[in-house]
Design brief:
about 60 residues; alpha+beta; 3 strands; about 15% strand
């Protein structure tokens, strides 16, 4: 999940990454929206919503 795919109360899965090759819109509940807002502050400049922490020396 990339931040660019999240707009308002919708997550749009692009066709090029969807298993069936079709774009899909997923509604985001108010509770999920709150969690995403908290995550945004933690992920910094990462393009990924669920970014994995980077460690020095890892590529």
């Amino acid at each position: 999940m990339r931040w660019e795919q999240v707009e308002g109360d919708w997550w749009t899965i692009p066709a090029e990454v969807a298993k069936n090759g079709l774009a899909h819109r997923v509604p985001i509940s108010p509770q999920d929206r709150m969690l995403l807002d908290e995550l945004r502050a933690l992920t910094g400049s990462s393009v990924w919503v669920f970014a994995r922490p980077r460690r020095l020396g890892c590529h």
